[in-house]
Amino acid sequence: METVFSKIIEGTIPSKKVFENERILAFYDIEPAAPVHVLIIPKKFIASMNDVTAEDLPLIGEIHAVAQQIAIELGIAETGYRLINNCGPDSGQAVPHLHYHLLGGAKLGALVGTSASHA
């Protein structure tokens, strides 16, 4: 399936890359929701988290390790960051290609269903 992310992976749409290897690409979001807002995507097409198979689990683990590495490199690991995966239209997933949002660089607002008592 062709998406904006497949075009970024192909290089037909430019991006400001933060990380790339043969399996994963990370780049700055063009409409940042925080001072640091990086999108992390697998190069393999997976529509959403609902489409992840057992075969994909090592890739998902690698994406999390890459997120951790990027957070360190961008100086947000110590103060904190958020790693978000939206799954499906009700969650706000706008591009049908599995992706994670790495957000940080400022004190982020509370998410629905969270409070200090749940921390």
List keywords for this structure.
119 residues; five-stranded antiparallel sheet; 2 helices; alpha+beta; HIT family, subunit A
Would you kindly provide a written description of the structure presented here, covering whatever features stand out?
The protein is α+β, with helices and mostly antiparallel strands. The protein has a single domain, classed as 2-Layer Sandwich (HIT family, subunit A), CATH 3.30.428.10. The protein contains two helices and five strands, in the order αβββαββ. It has helices at 4-10, 57-73; strands at residues 17-20, 24-28, 36-42, 81-84, 100-104. The protein has a five-stranded antiparallel sheet with strand order 1-2-3-5-4, covered by helices on one side. It starts with a helix and ends in a 15-residue tail after the last strand. The relative contact order is 0.21. The mean pLDDT is 93.
Shape from CA axes?
globular
Residue share in β-strands: 15-25%
How many β-strand stretches? Answer: 5
* CATH fold-level topology: HIT family, subunit A
Average pLDDT, all residues: 93
The helix tally amounts to: 2
CATH class label: Alpha Beta
CATH architecture term: 2-Layer Sandwich
Strand order, largest beta sheet: 1-2-3-5-4
Rg result: 14 Å
Task: Give me a quick take on this structure.
This protein has helices spanning 4-10, 57-73; strands at residues 17-20, 24-28, 36-42, 81-84, 100-104. It has 2 helices and 5 strands. A 5-stranded antiparallel β-sheet has the order 1-2-3-5-4, with helices on one face.
